[in-house]
Model the fold of this input.
Amino acid sequence: MKGHDATSRICLALARVPTGRVVTYGGLAELAGLPRAARLVGQTLRKLPRDTRLPWHRVINAQGKVSLPEPAAKRQLARLLDEGVTPVKGKIDLRHYGWPKPGQL
Done:
């Protein structure tokens, strides 16, 4: 598969994540039709322009935590809080905020 095609698929899947919800890197890879490509998702998100309109901040790790280093982690948490996503002890409850829920697609 060509890299550009994978990037497009990841970006299209990311654009579908609704406000107030989060998706894991692996979950986004699956939504993009790229199972087992969580690292590719991370690499793709790192290459997004700083002024992107894609909701990059809605992607977290499988433990429900932000994986970004500071200061990006602080920006990501602020954006999530603005959308009503509230971490407890540094973790986001994937059962509550995770997307998609079964049957939502």
